[in-house]
Amino acid sequence: MIFVGNGALLWRAVAHAKEAGQPVDLVVTGPGAHHQDPAAVDTHDVNAVAQDIDAASSDGIIWSIDNAFVFRAPVLELDQQIYNVHGGPLPAYRGLPLATVAHALLNDEPEYGATLHHVDAGLDTGPVIDERRFPIAPDDVFEDVMLATIDACHELFVDNLDDVAAGRCTPRPQPDGPSGYYGLHAARQLDRHRDNPHYARATDLGLFADFYPEAAAAWS
């Protein structure tokens, strides 16, 4: 298995895969990542190491976890199955969790969740394999929802790891309904919603202020 992404959620998945006896052939992560894993490579662009991914893969499976890279033709054209663990319900909240969680709170959503889906050429548009939903309490803030999202993402990975490895997954089209994309631009423009009655909840980063210092400064 190839793992692509960054952060604690990625390494939590890598550790679980190893404990479960699954092969960890290569971990592709962003530049400057602090790790000591001999199977890891740092890059500015996952597509630039497509041939390394193909050469290392023992089972044709790529996991995308907490991954800000966008897969393009060099990777998409490989004979690999790519599975993305996305921090948000699809198709309503495609994009970066920093922005999707904030906008879900701005929209006063009663629930949120995470989705496991196949990767295609779009941005979080591939067929769904599994999902987890959880309620949002009226007094929940960004920190609460993001922590629950992280747990839901890891639960999806753990619960589906063996089925993915065995090729037992049955993808289904994403459900009908509103589709929204919230990327870096949406995160940078969030302070334009200061008049929203839920703005304080959506921008209360809590412990995540250290992970998103630019957002913490811009949204305060």
Instruction: State the domain count.
Output: 2
Report the strand count. 9
The CATH architecture term of the largest domain is 3-Layer(aba) Sandwich
- CATH fold assignment of the largest domain: Rossmann fold
What does this protein structure show overall?
The chain is of the alpha/beta class and 220 residues long. The chain folds into two domains: 1-79; 88-112 and 133-220, 3-Layer(aba) Sandwich (Rossmann fold), CATH 3.40.50.12230. It is 34% helix and 19% strand. It has helices at residues 7-19, 50-56, 73-76, 97-106, 142-166, 184-188, 199-202, 213-219, and strands at 2-5, 26-29, 40-42, 61-65, 81-86, 94-95, 111-118, 128-135, 181-182. A seven-stranded mixed β-sheet has the order 3-2-1-4-5-7-8. A two-stranded parallel sheet has the order 6-9. Helix 1 runs parallel beside helix 5. The mean pLDDT is 96. Its EC number is 2.1.2.2. Keywords: Purine biosynthesis, Transferase. Residues 49-159 form the Formyl transferase N-terminal domain. It is an enzyme of class 2 (transferase).
Could you outline the blueprint of secondary structure elements for this entry?
Elements: E1 2-5, H1 7-19, E2 26-29, E3 40-42, H2 50-56, E4 61-65, H3 73-76, E5 81-86, E6 94-95, H4 97-106, E7 111-118, E8 128-135, H5 142-166, E9 181-182, H6 184-188, H7 199-202, H8 213-219
Parallel strand pairs: 1-2, 1-4, 2-3, 4-5, 6-9
Antiparallel strand pairs: 5-7, 7-8
Helix pairs in contact: 1-5
